[in-house]
Structure formats: C-alpha cells, structure tokens
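=== Structure Prediction Worksheet ===
Name of assembly: unnamed complex
Input type: mixed (protein and possibly other molecules)
Chain count: three
Listed entries:
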Amino acid sequence: MPELPEVETIRRDLSPRITGKSFVALTLNWPKTVQNQSAEAFKQGLIGQTICGLDRRGKYLILRLASGDSLILHMRMSGSLLVEPGCESDPYTRTVFHLDDGSSLCFRDPRKLGVMWLVKDAGEVVGKLGPEPLDSSFTVAIFGERIGRRSAPIKAVLCDQGIIAGIGNMYADEALFAAGIHPLRPADNLSNGEAERLYAAMRQALERGIDCCGASISDYQRPGGQTGTAQAAFKVAHRKGQPCPSCGTPIERIPIRQRGSYFCPRCQPYRKRQSKRNKS
DNA sequence: CCCGGAACCTGAAGGC
DNA sequence: TGCCTTCAGGTTCCGG
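=== Predicted Assembly ===
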C-alpha cells in the first residue's frame, strides 16, 4: 500500500528512466482511472507531451510536462508503476503509457482503485493537502498546532491528508508505537512531550521507510519489479499476535475508522490526561 | 467545522 | 474440495 516512502521510492526509481521521453500512445484498459475528463480527452491531451521531471506530494506522484501540464497518479491500495519489458501484457495492467523510445510505463492495479489526472495546474489535485512531514519547514511547533486542534483519535488524525500529507496506516502505527502512544488517544489530549515524541517518531519512521525503498506488504513493487524491505523492520504494523519487540506482549489489532490499527497494549497504554494542552 | 461511516474495488484467507 | 463470507485500506462523499 503505497504511502509516502513507497511513492518517493517510485519517484526516485522512475525519474532517470522516463525523464526526457514523450508519450506516443496510450492503452486504457480501465478508463475509470481517468478522473477529471473523458478517457478520450485524456489520451489526446497526453499524446505528444514530454516528461521533464517527477515530483511527489504526499502520496501523489506528479509528472511535470514540458507544456506546463501535470500528469498526476495516485496508487491508492494496490497500484504500482512498472517499466519492465512485458508489463504491457500483465492481466492487471490498467494503463500502458507508450513512450517515444519504444519503452512502456505500465500502471498495474489489481483492485482498480488507482486514479490519474491530466491538469494545467497540479494544485487542482494536491492543493488541499497538509504540509510535507519531512520538509525542514515542518517544525514540531507546526505539528503540535495542527494535531492539537482535533479531538479525533490520534491515529485518524495522523492519517488525515489535510493535516499532514503522506502518512497512511502502516507508518502511523509504527510512529505511534515508537512514541509509546495509544492510537485511540484524542489528538488534542496529547501532552507537549508526547507531541514532540510523536513528531520525531513519525519523521524517523518515514525516513527509515525511504531508506528501505518502501514496504512490500501487499501488491507494492518498485518500477523495476523489486520489492521494498521496510516491512521487515516494522515492529507492530501487520503483526497481530506476535510478541512486542520491546516487552513481549502480543500485538493487538483494533479497528479505527474502518482501518486495522496494530499496537502494543503495554508499551502504548491508554492514559487520558485530565487537562487539555493550552491552545493558541 | 468536525466526526464517523459507506462506497469504490478484487484477491487472499478463513470457516464450514 | 469448494462455496461463501470477511478482510485489506486511501480517498471521497454524505449525514448527523
């Protein structure tokens, strides 16, 4: 499930392999992937355009085009982008981008939840996202201020793309474990010290994920077909019943907002504070 | 404004 | 062995 580290890995792998190339044809096997216009208009708008660079915003991959347009892709649950020869005939390839050097870029997506846009201004798609968690401008003060305005469970707030961009289920669970915070704690109930610990844990979890080239939990694979290795370093995510690496207590799984949340009940006790942190 | 839940999807896994 | 149900979760939309 591509989150920030997985999309960043895709961006880094793909950038040298497709930058400078142009689209010469498009095969759309699942037209509903196209978001803001008809599949035919999307195809005609893209053919002839040249890729001049790749950006990432949250979990969105942005292909900057020479015209100033942006081709934006979101993998959602099961999407991956592949450049390996033969990917065109994979039964789960939903879109084939044919490039001017004879190579292909394939959008493989078994569950068909992935989406893409061709827009004049990338802000039309990514404009409502919260700040990038790894930007140097994203300080602990900004983090505390943004999560401290919400009363929802901290797990849900961490995964809210409008609060912070790029964090999903896996890395939220890892960050909360590293910070020793129960996922159901109301976000506005964390102490300043807890918010500081969570900020550091979140950034470390994401950086570690990037260093490992992402986590191959389900369908995720890198553009060259390799898998990521971050899942091996996960301490709680997708480890229900396994002993906590710190204390040996079995990892539990509870649903929060229809999502599985994995945590250690001993290392992440639910201790609600009496008074709220000072706001403003 | 803010919260929680349904819908979109299909392969994998578990139950009987 | 095989059918059926449940689960997986990022995002958007909707109702309270």
